[in-house]
Structures are given as C-alpha cells and as structure tokens.
TrEMBL record:
The keyword Aminoacyl-tRNA synthetase applies. Pfam families: tRNA-synt_2, tRNA_anti-codon. Keywords: Aminoacyl-tRNA synthetase, ATP-binding, Cytoplasm, Ligase, Nucleotide-binding, Protein biosynthesis. It comes from Keratinibaculum paraultunense. GO terms for biological process: asparaginyl-tRNA aminoacylation. It is an enzyme of class 6 (ligase). Its main location: cytoplasm. One of its GO terms (molecular function) is nucleic acid binding. Its EC number is 6.1.1.22. GO terms for cellular component: cytoplasm. NCBIfam families: asnS, PRK03932.1. It is found in: Cytoplasm. This is Asparagine--tRNA ligase.
Amino acid sequence: RLDIKEIFENPEKFLNKEVEIEGWIRTSRSSKKIGFIEINDGTFFTNLQIVFDEKLENFKEIEKLPISSAIAVKGVLVETPKAKQPFEIHAKDIKVEGYSHNDYPLQKKRHSFEYLRTIAHLRPRSNTFNAVFRVRSLAAHAIHKFFQDRDFVYVHTPIITGSDAEGAGEMFCVTDLDLANVPLNEKGEVDFTKDFFGKETNLTVSGQLEAEAFALAFKKVYTFGPTFRAENSNTPRHAAEFWMVEPEIAFADLNDNMKLAEDMMKYIIQYVMDNAKEEMKFFNSFIDKGLVDRLDNIVNSEFGHITYTDAIKILEDSKEDFQYPVKWGIDLQTEHERYISEKIFKGPVFVTDYPKDIKAFYMRLNDDEKTVAAMDLLVPGVGEIIGGSQREERLDVLERRIEEMGMDKKDYWWYLELRKYGGTKHAGFGLGFERAIMYLTGMKNIRDVIPFPRTVKSAEF
Ligand code: 4AD
Ligand code: MG
C-alpha cells in the first residue's frame, strides 16, 4: 500500500492505474448513489478525495462511517482538471480497518486551541496540530543537520544532575525518598545522604556546563534535549519541560557566537520552508498572515545588534507606557523585548553586554566590571528566543563570581577544573526549541507547539 504522500508528490506515476492506500476519514458526504470521502493518512498535509458509488457492495456501510474511521481503499487514480485537487481516487473496494464512534470530538468545525489542549491525544489529527508537529519534527532534523554538516559533536548531557547550571534555583528535585517519612539530619534538613544518589539531585535546567567540558575536548559540540524549569510563570512562553539546543565552541568569542546563532536560525527557517511547503502555506493563511514573506525576508537580511545599555536608552526615551518601569539594571521583560525587536528593529536583534547582576555566574566579565559578554536574540512576536554568552575562562574571576552570587564553589569543582587544564576562551548559547517553533509557525502559545505540554498546574497527559 502507498503512502498518500507518494501520490501527491508524483501523481503522473499513478494516473489511471490501480492504487491501494489507507487512512482516516476526514470528511464524508453522500447522496443515494454516490459518496465522497476525504482521507488522510498523516504522510501528507492535504486530504485526498475518494469517490465511491453504489457498485460497492458495502456502499451503505461506507457512506455511514463516522469521521475518523480507518479505511483501506483500492481504486484508480483519475484526473479531475476542474476540481480544487487535480486528481481523485475512484474506489473499487473499501475495507473498514477501524470504526470510529459517533461522538468523535473533532467534527468538521473550528475548535478553540484551549479546547484542543484538553484532548492532546487527539489534536495531532487536526490540521493545525498536524502542521505544527510536522514542522517541529523537521526543525529538529534541520538542527542536527546544521551542526553535523559543520562537524559539531552531539553530546548527550545528563537529565539528572548534581549541579545547578543556571544558579537560579529553579529546579525539580529528583528523589527516591519516601515523602511520608523523609529522613532528617541533626540540623532538621532533609538528609539526602539517604537518597538513591547519596546527595541532592535535580532535573537539568541546561546542558551547558557539561557541553563546556566536551567543547574543551572536541572544539565544536552541541547538545539538544529536554530541560526542566520549576519557574512559576504561567505565561504563553514558559513550559516546565522544554527542549533546548545548546552549541558550545572553544576558541570562540561573543561575535563568533552570534554569527553561529544567526546562521543556525536562517538554516532552520530555510529548511522548514523548503520541506514543509503545504504546512507553511496553511500557517500563512490561517494562523499568521504574511508569515512566509516575513520568514523569507529574515533569511535574506542581517540580524540587528544593540547593547543592553543602548536598548535601555531607547526604552527610556520611548513614549510607550510599559507596565514594568525601565531603568539600567532591570532584566528586560517580554514587553521591552518585543518593543525593541518589533518597533525598533522590525526583525531579529541581538542584545549584548547585560549587567552582570541579572545574568548567570558563568558569563565572561567585561572590562567595565559591570557588564558581561552576554547575548540574547529577540524576535518579533516571541521575545527572547536565544540566550548565550562568552564564558568566563579566568579561574580567579570565575571563583570570585561564584562566591559573589552566594553559590558554593564545592558544587562546581569539576567545572572550575576545566579552567585549570587548558581552559581557553569559549562561547555558546541555548535556543529554546519551542520558541523557535512558535516563531516558525506563528503559533502564539507554547502549549500549542509541544505534543503533551507540562506547565504550571497542568500535566494531564
Ligand atoms: O536564557 P537561558 O536560561 O540560557 C541557558 O539556559 C543557557 N545555559 C544557554 C546556553 O548558553 N547554553 O535559556 C535559553 C533559552 C531561552 O532563550 C528561551 O528561548 C528558552 O531557552 N527557555 C524556555 N523556553 C520555554 N520555557 C521556559 N521555561 C524557558 N526558559 C528558557
Ligand atoms: Mg535567558
């Protein structure tokens, strides 16, 4: 049996010949003598029309099949030059492979994304989510291809970790301790020596620190996997479980880092536009008008650059009524990020050299001793999509920063050793994979680009 994609990609090969396909009924209508079914097998975005008539011995059964029933069809592919699709199948035989009940929730009407979230097990069958998850898969492939073609080594960094990569304390604890009977030490704290690992461990917030260790052995590496954050932010951009792409390169500075990020973003966009044409057309028509032209523009233009300090000046001078007051030293909020990328640069922009106090301990201290060699990539519609930096390679400065931030040097002993043994300048960044998918599709909520999203108070599936 053929994948329906094969027919759409090469109809000439099958015209006027008998073909066999299988799939699920998307729409169905019939009169006394003739029926029309639109079928989809998930290999191609567009439905294929099946025409059947009372010559079928099971005509009555087929015509009554509820939407989403699975069928196998044998028939001839014929040209239909005047119809919206240039071909259809005239069925000779239709077999039922799986009945659907009449209360199938995805009937042919528009459903809200909120409602579809409550049926995450069925929503990949809808047009929007079918397109989103195809794009998600292709984008993941594009990322691997981009890095592999450039000889980056893919490192599988651990999911369960003993260190806090961001030093922000937003971690989910991993434990096998009996919560009804938690062992306490003399100080009355949880006694993690009794835990499976003999110490407190957490789900990783980032694979960066381990990626750095490998960059200092392989020069160019990347990790791409799930990360977890117990941030209590119930926003359309934050998930508790999300995927991150984190390249790390030795002998590289902040400019090399931004160049890599820009090349990677353009590559992913181009790859998805080339390989998901139907899906991108759909997003362009139904989700975000003008999306395809905009993405096309981005691939063919240079990303903007501005320092944090200059961005703050622009925000202070703007007439915008920001909810969160602007002054040097604040962490940029989504409203500020969007203003800079949407109103000032009208496209992707790197903001660099943030105040050290709002950034992680590992970022390289600039000569002014007030800012660090950080870069965030901000994009219209989403805000921060990438966060990265040149890393602090000077052992003494790094130790001082760790102490300043009230962290324990002991917890980072191996990370500090990397600076002792041939620690060279190096840099890297993290791309939020879901935010990249939002940017590529125009979807507005992170819950709608993750197959089974985990967010605050939500892990039904
Ligand atoms: O800016 P972040 O926190 O940077 C890091 O984790 C670095 N260790 C990366 C590195 O340099 N290797 O996170 C990177 C990106 C953000 O820009 C954002 O796109 C995404 O990860 N991100 C989230 N995406 C969804 N939900 C969340 N809760 C996210 N937190 C960060
Ligand atoms: Mg960040």
